[in-house]
Amino acid sequence: MALMGRVALVTGGAQGIGRAAVEALMRSAAKVSVVDVNQDCGDACKSELDAEFGGGSCAFIQCDVTDGDALRADAFQKTADMFGRLDIVINNAGINNEKNWEKTIGVNLTSVIKGTYLGLEHMSREYGKQGGTIINVSSMAAFMHSPHQPVYTATKHGVIGFTRAMADASVLGNYGVRINVLCPAFVDTPLLHSVEEEDNMGKFVKFKEDFKRTMDKFGVLQPSLIADGMMRLITDAALNGAVMKITCSKGIHFHTYEPMSA
Ligand SMILES: NC(=O)C1=CN([C@@H]2O[C@H](COP(=O)(O)OP(=O)(O)OC[C@H]3O[C@@H](n4cnc5c(N)ncnc54)[C@H](O)[C@@H]3O)[C@@H](O)[C@H]2O)C=CC1
Ligand SMILES: CCCCCC(=O)/C=C/C=C\C/C=C\C/C=C\CCCC(=O)O
Asked: Which side of the chain, N or C, has fewer Cβ within a 10 Å radius?
């Protein structure tokens, strides 16, 4: 079991992609802290995981990732106290809300930045810790900008830029923490249904048929494949600053960048 004794924290872990990642980690014998704002979904998730894997290997912590104090004290510190260490952080919680677009920036970008910095406090050699790995969840929307979700698209661009910069900082600073980013295309989760809702899409809801045509054109992935990609980012020690894309046509693959030249 590759991850026996390792401890992971997954934000937005109660359903969808995060839940699939939690299950994959537990199948590899890691202990997992599921951090999610949704109490009912988190309670149900914990009961199901306890029934499948036995009690003691996972915890549910109700926490809104946009509450910086709660993220630090209730999520990260409690996880480290409960399981004695932290090795893997998956900053996955995300929303699609063009109406309350400032909240979208808060959840999808600001909280990913905070989650990365907190992960470093618990894992980086800078802080006297043993090292570890961080995955930040972006989207293919960062490559194929979505006219139906301009602010969502902006946050996902931001997650890639921040993650790549931090991955280089980790090398320069000898943090001992690998930091990578994952960009799935459309995935079959409750989030995808938010395209129907004016409360989520705001004025862009009138483009929902166009959005659905794009989904039909590119297809919809299963969360288990995204979890497979995450497990590769976690276990492949050569990966740092990698931008993993997952699409129906190409499966799991990596974005390549031109080398920088003067
Ligand atoms: N479903 C899709 O087609 C794609 C999703 N993504 C990204 O994957 C990530 C996960 O998305 P899905 O699983 O599809 O969504 P989902 O809506 O199924 O699950 C998201 C989870 O995050 C939690 N969450 C939302 N706001 C939160 C907050 N403020 N604090 C704590 N937890 C919060 C929700 O309660 C939920 O359990 C997101 O970052 C999303 O942008 C990326 C590409 C495609
Ligand atoms: C309703 C909210 C759902 C949000 C999910 C998400 O992240 C949205 C992505 C939006 C746009 C991405 C557009 C197209 C990308 C899909 C596939 C590209 C695959 C290209 C290929 O090589 O096949």
From this structure: C
